[in-house]
Amino acid sequence: MTRLTVNDRPVHFLMDGDTPLLWALRDAANLTGAKYGCGNGDCGACTVIIDGQAIRSCLVTLDEVEGRYVTTIEALSGDRSHPLQQAMVAEGAIQCGFCTPGFVMAGAALLAQNPRAGRDDIARAIPNICACGAGPRILRAIERAGRAIRSRERLDALPVPGMDPAEAAQDVPAIAVPLPPEENEE
């Protein structure tokens, strides 16, 4: 049994310790913000923050995160008020949305460490892939969020069209549920 803290809540995963964190989050805790993209850490769609660092959750196992603190996109800000979330909307940096959680989490971790990160710093720290071509707008959004953080400015971007802000900001509890025995065994 793996014990860790997910989104400020203690969680016990009753899954094999070799299970990638991504699958524990998505399948057992119903935290589906981190996406499966490539499975080998290249795309960054599965990025979460572990102990303050942006980590690709497809590359770390439950055993490797024992006792650590994990933050997913669901807990970055319950009302989507994080400056990077606001800047992504303001810059029109959300295309299909599949890569968005990974970029937001990687950007949030970077800006927490260095709110003065410039374009070169951002490009080095966030090698995530956006297949839709929103990359330049995403970089601008991260820069804009850094400026907002430094000036303590709230951007107050409008919600994504067609999305009810109250529904999008729901607090999703992290509850680990064991898989049935036949799925745990190989």
Keywords:
single chain; 186 residues; alpha+beta; Ubiquitin-like (UB roll); DNA polymerase, domain 1; 2 domains; five-stranded mixed β-sheet; 7 helices; 11% strand; globular; 2Fe-2S_ferredoxin-type; metal ion binding; iron
- Termini gap: 17 Å
In the sheet with the most strands, the strands line up as 2-1-5-3-4
CATH class wording of the largest domain? Mainly Alpha
Going by CATH, the architecture of the largest domain would be Orthogonal Bundle
Enter the CATH topology name of the largest domain.
DNA polymerase, domain 1
Question: What kind of sheet is the major sheet?
Answer: 5 strands, mixed
Which structural class is indicated by helix and strand composition? alpha+beta
CATH superfamily of the largest domain: [2Fe-2S]-binding domain
The number of helical runs is 7
List the secondary-structure elements in sequence, H or E.
EEHEEEHHHHHH
Task: Work out the helicity level.
Answer: 25-40%
Pfam families: Fer2 (PF00111), Fer2_2 (PF01799)
Keywords: 2Fe-2S, Iron, Iron-sulfur, Metal-binding, Oxidoreductase
Protein name: (2Fe-2S)-binding protein
Domain 2Fe-2S ferredoxin-type: 1-76
